[in-house]
Amino acid sequence: MTVRRTAGRARMLDGAGSVGAQDLASYEDRRLSIFFKRCRLAATHRQDVQLMSMSIGRGCFCALALLTGPAVLAAQRPAPLTAGVVRVCADPDNMPFSNQAGEGFENKLAELVAREWHAKLEYAWWPVRRGFFNRGLRGRYCDMAMTAPSKLDMVAATTPFFRSAYVIVYRKDSGLNITSLNDSSLKHLRIGVNLLNADAENTPPAMALSAHGVVGTLVGFGTFYSDSVRPNDIIDAVVDKTIDLAIVWGPLAGYFAKHSKTPLVLTPIEFDTLTNTPFAFDISMGVRKSDVALRDSLQKLLDSHFDEVQGILTEFGVPLLSIPPADSTQRHSSRTPGSRVTVPAGR
Description:
Blueprint: E1 10-12, H1 27-31, E2 49-56, E3 59-66, H2 70-75, E4 85-90, E5 93-94, E6 98-99, H3 105-116, E7 120-125, H4 132-137, E8 144-149, E9 156-157, E10 162-171, E11 191-194, H5 204-211, E12 218-221, H6 233-239, E13 245-249, H7 250-258, E14 264-269, E15 271-272, E16 277-278, E17 280-287, H8 292-304, H9 306-315, E18 341-343
Parallel strand pairs: 4-7, 11-12, 11-13
Antiparallel strand pairs: 1-12, 2-3, 5-6, 8-17, 9-17, 10-13, 10-14, 10-17, 14-18, 15-16
């Protein structure tokens, strides 16, 4: 069954299209890197870079065909770490994280690093999907990523500078009062979830809800963005009542809820006990594993500019949870983990 909003924006999952429950105890280490960042298969309309998706077996990668001069070309070629230059891998169309206009919070973090190091900021525009860290960082197209799962073993990560979670999102005037996946009313509501084009795994809510018996009422939203498929579609569907609620990665939900004209309620989910699925994750900055000195320099910057970094995240509406005590960088969040947040209508 298909729900036709605009081309490809949403689809209803029936039994045959549901995602089976799986043991995700080690999900964070293995696959989190593609939970909250999505590959954009459609070519960008900007003239400086054309993104072409090429399929290889079960995986795929994005090649960069450059259409401008030597300065941009140099930033997109593999190169050694260079003094006075901050090279960042970033997605060209992935708000609120990053875009080529420099409007995302990762862009602001990169600008902070470049400013404090008195360095030139260069981007390697690379749609985020499987292989982003392996090919982007290890392939030396860039030297750092502004956000990376703290336990991702293919990077040298700073200690976490924030922790966020998937959130349940619904209209404040909906009359709903849902705080976990154990709520039986979910079986009777239209629920929006983001879907990955993966053979076996998907986003935490898509996988966990099927184990709770919530299948036929799920509405899937694409993660390969184009002119007709946008990251805000899932929040817009809550606002216009196409769906009753959505379960969305916190930074994405918080940003678009903040800019919504309709007040929305966001409730973080940190863990699903039925499937042992983590829904909250620590986020760090990441560099190549061999660049320990660079990682340590980033750590010093994060420590000395903690308030400014947190201010950037807050400005973008990122739901912030307290980092677990086991991490030495635990800070006191202004928001209690699991607490409900009502986001007022945007101006």
